[in-house]
Each structure stands twice: as structure tokens, then as C-alpha cells.
Specification:
This protein has eight helices and nine strands. The protein is an alpha+beta fold. The strands form two sheets. Strands 2, 5, 6, 7, 8 and 9 form a six-stranded mixed beta sheet that branches. Strands 1-4-3 form a three-stranded mixed beta sheet, covered by helices on one side. The longest helix is centred in the C-terminal third of the chain and has 21 residues, at 178-198.
Length: 242
């Protein structure tokens, strides 16, 4: 009998290995380093990203992979057609804010015109209502890092590479906003202070006590690499007691 390759399994294994090789979390989870891309999420998801305890299934990893491939195309192919003063995949100058350090990589930076561009992929335009707040938050960190006052999000459809921008109008840009920036700093400090005071998360109960799930997609769809039984048992005990 011919032994057929289980392609679903093999692709899933490859996606998982690629994710482990490229996942953005810190070796030292107790330090004050935060990736700019985390800060648009809720405190719960910032903490999970910081400590590297979120798990992704093959479906979510596949969506991430297609986005990564488009980013690589933009960097390796489209960048050849950009003016010389535009840098692709440029590490931002580290932003030090008290005990915190913000890091990240800007997709494209026009140094002559002092504009930062960030690429975001979309599965489709269905029910798409830009801008997405977390994308604007990420760019506030980038603008602070470079000291530039203008930025733009480039949304790209995974299906056909159609492009939409935010703001949509040519010559209009997201503006640097100190108030928004310091709100992000305050959010990061909540997570940092919790880690300093309590160390790592080792149970769902501890996580829920620290930062309850909010009503966004990422909290509703989370999969965690920690023991969830403790929290579930506590809930059952409460129900029995009632």
C-alpha cells in the first residue's frame, strides 16, 4: 500500500516551526522592552505577547504566513521601484521612556519627506472600516522614535494585492499625537508593573485576576500555553456553592 504524505500535518508542522523562529517575544520577559506592534492591543494581550504564552493554530498561522509573504514581496521587489531616500524594513531608533524601551521595525520610511509607512494585509475588504486603532497606535510609537510627524497605513488585500490607504486622500497623513503616545506608555507601564510585582503568568486564574478578557477578537480567540484547569475548577466550585 502506498504511503501517502499527510500534507495538512506537514504544512501545520512547518507553520508552527516558522512561527517559533520568528515570534516576537522577549528572552527576558521581566525587562522593560516592548514591541511597538503590541501596544495597540489590550493590557491582557500585551502581557501574553510579552511573555510568549499565546499559541496559534494552523489556520491563524496560515493567515500570518500569507501576510509575511506579502511583506517580503514589498521589501524585496517593490522597494526596487521606490526613491533612494525611502528605506524598507528599517529598525526604529529605540525609544526609552523611564523603565520602558520601545522597539520595532518600520516597513518603509521616507526620510526626505519625513513620512513613515506601515503595511497591513487584509483577507478582504468585507466590513472593513478603517482606520484600525491598533495600527494607528503602532505608528504613534514609530513617529515618536523617528521624530517625524506624518505616517500612513497601506492596506493590501491578500486575494489580489489591491491597495487602500489610510488616510485615503493623497497628501493627507496620520499626525503625531503626544496625548495618544503617552496613553500607550501608561498602558505598557501597567503590564510592566504587574510583571515586576508578580513575575510570570502560570495559570488562567492568575491571568484573569490581572487583566480580564475584553470584548475584542483577540481575547475571544486566544489559545494559551498555560494550565487552564485551575481557573476552570474555581469556576465550577463557585457554581456548586451557589
Amino acid at each position: 500500500m502506498t504511503q501517502e504524505i499527510n500534507w495538512s500535518q506537514k504544512i501545520g508542522e512547518a507553520l508552527q516551526e516558522d512561527n517559533e523562529n520568528h515570534e516576537e517575544h522577549d528572552e527576558d520577559t521581566n525587562d522593560g522592552v516592548f514591541h511597538a506592534s503590541w501596544l495597540g492591543y489590550c493590557q491582557r494581550n500585551i502581557l501574553l505577547s510579552k511573555q510568549g504564552i499565546k499559541e496559534n493554530d494552523a489556520e491563524s498561522l496560515g493567515r500570518f504566513m500569507t501576510g509575511t509573504l506579502i511583506h517580503e514581496f514589498m521589501e524585496n521587489e517593490v522597494s526596487d521601484f521606490l526613491p533612494d531616500h525611502v528605506e524598507s524594513e528599517e529598525a526604529i531608533p529605540e525609544v526609552e521612556q523611564g523603565d520602558l524601551t520601545f522597539v520595532g521595525t518600520a516597513d518603509a520610511v521616507d526620510h526626505e519627506n519625513e513620512v513613515i509607512y506601515d503595511f497591513k494585509t487584509r483577507a478582504s475588504w468585507y466590513r472593513f472600516e478603517p482606520p484600525i486603532d491598533r495600527h494607528l497606535d503602532q505608528l504613534q510609537i514609530y513617529m515618536e522614535a523617528f521624530g517625524y510627524d506624518k505616517a500612513k497605513v497601506i492596506y493590501i488585500s491578500k486575494g489580489d494585492m489591491e491597495v487602500k490607504t489610510w488616510p485615503e486622500e493623497e497628501g493627507e497623513f496620520i499626525e503625531r499625537d503626544s496625548s495618544s503616545y503617552y496613553q500607550l506608555v501608561a498602558k505598557a507601564y501597567e503590564v510592566y508593573d504587574f510583571i515586576q510585582n508578580h513575575g510570570g503568568i502560570d495559570s488562567i486564574e492568575q491571568l484573569n485576576e490581572a487583566f480580564k478578557p475584553c470584548d475584542n477578537f483577540f481575547c475571544g480567540d486566544e489559545k494559551l500555553s498555560i494550565d487552564t484547569s485551575q481557573g476552570e475548577e474555581s469556576e465550577e466550585e463557585t457554581e456548586d456553592g451557589e
